[in-house]
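Pipeline run #58 for the internal structure catalog. This entry was flagged by the ingest filter as a single-chain record with no existing model, so it goes straight to prediction. Upstream metadata was stripped on purpose; only the residue string is passed forward. Reviewer on rotation: M.T. Logging verbosity set to normal.
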Amino acid sequence: MAAVAPTPGMAAYGAAKAATGGGIVVDAIICASGGWESDPSPISAKAWGETMDKMLQMNLYPVMAAGQVANEYMAKEGLFVAIGAMAAVAPTPGMAAYGAAKAATHQYIQTLGASSGLGIGHNAIRKEARRLRKNSPYLDDLTAVAILPTMIDTPSNRKFATPKDDFNAWTKPIDIAEEIGTWIAQPYLRPSSGSLVKVFPPRLHKDENGDEKWGKSTFGLVR
């Protein structure tokens, strides 16, 4: 039998499967993998291919691998969350590879959501979804959501900051974690399966003493 070289997708699946702890049932899977890189300049075929591969491996393959792990280990009323990007809702000149990878992540979450019993869609989509769920019972009550931030305040993102950037206006990871925690603890507060959820960055406001202070990030539906 010929040996099969592992692809990036296969490697991502193996890593995601190992993270479950070897067969335990999980209530939620949060895929926070991601990364950014601008398109090469000047563009060459080799540099473009390397950048595209890197963006897919960082932003898309882990999400799809985690989705397959959910098929094997997700408990009833499971929650699947991936990190998308608000930038990828529109054209992304100068970072086409990143935008394409994130847009593909959004599409995957919307498709996974439409395949679930809690998703929404027209009759043809719902009919095909019912067929799929016969072999994937975890989809019956799965909620799949993509969270779309603008800028998360992480050490790696700060490396790309300009002198004009105010880190107070960047989304703190804890804000996203707390929102996901609410969805886990209180399933009735979750968005519809397949939703893309925008993260609104913190804003300055005045407290009861009239002093200005930074608030927390808030969340709202993109679609």
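catalog note: The chain has a mean pLDDT of 88.
catalog note: The first helix runs from residue 8 to 18.
status: ready for reviewer M.T.
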